[in-house]
Amino acid sequence: MTKNDNLTGLYYSKIIKSLRYLEYSYNRTLPMPLNPAQMSDSELEAWDSFASRFARTSDIFLSKYIRAYILKDDPAFDGGFRDQLNRAEKLKLIDNVELWLEIRELRNSPVHEYSDQGLEKIFEKFRRFTPLLLDLPKKLSA
User: Fold this and answer.
1) Per-residue model confidence as pLDDT tens digits over 16-41
2) Which of 72, 63, 94, 61 is CA-nearest to residue 6?
3) From CA 79, how far away is CA 85, in angstroms rounded?
4) Parent domain of 56
5) Distance (Å, rounded) from C-alpha 136 to C-alpha 56?
6) Number of domains in the chain
7) Which residues lie closer than 8 Å to 63 by C-beta, 6 or more apart?
8) Is the pTM of this model over 0.70?
9) In 3D, which of 25, 124, 17, 15 has the Cα closest to residue 60?
């Protein structure tokens, strides 16, 4: 077993654990409004937790798992982030590079710095993209 086999297994385990928490937060926020002006403090806190779990899960997958998987396949690979996503698409880890770039961008969104209208759009994207993350176990192998 190579170092990269161990890493993909480790990151796979981390993704699975992270997905349990993400799914909990996702389900908890589904009945809540998207507009922060209509939320209670506890609902805003739940959304904050959801955003954090979304960011953590997507980061483990996009920044760690994909890189380890690609290096397992091609130890000489030395591409940037977009190159990694293109390779991940060829390896059938993802279906659409542009979609995962948008997830990465969303992950980098500082939720605390937006207006209520901007937050509503961000929260809607979290809801829209979470099912893609929750489906990761079907696509990945340890």
Assistant:
1) 999 999 999 999 999 999 999 999 99
2) 72
3) 10
4) 3-139
5) 14
6) 1
7) none
8) yes
9) 15
What does the DSSP 8-state code read for residue 112? G
Phi, psi torsion values for 63, nearest 5 degrees: -95, -25
The first and second tokens of residue 132, run together, are: 């893609």
Q: What is the CATH number of the domain that holds 57?
A: 1.20.120
Cα–Cα separations (whole angstroms), residue 50 to 13, 20, 39, 104, 127: 20, 12, 14, 15, 10
Q: How many helices (H) and strands (E) does the chain have?
A: 7, 0
> 């161990």: which residue's tokens?
6
Residue 14 CA to residue 19 CA, distance in Å, equals 8
**What is the tens place of the pLDDT at every residue in 67-102?**
999 999 999 999 999 999 999 999 999 999 999 999
Written as six digits, the tokens of 69 are 């998987």
Q: Taking a C-beta distance cutoff of 8 angstroms, is the pair 65, 8 a contact?
A: yes
Measure the CA dihedral 64/17/31/124, to 10°.
0
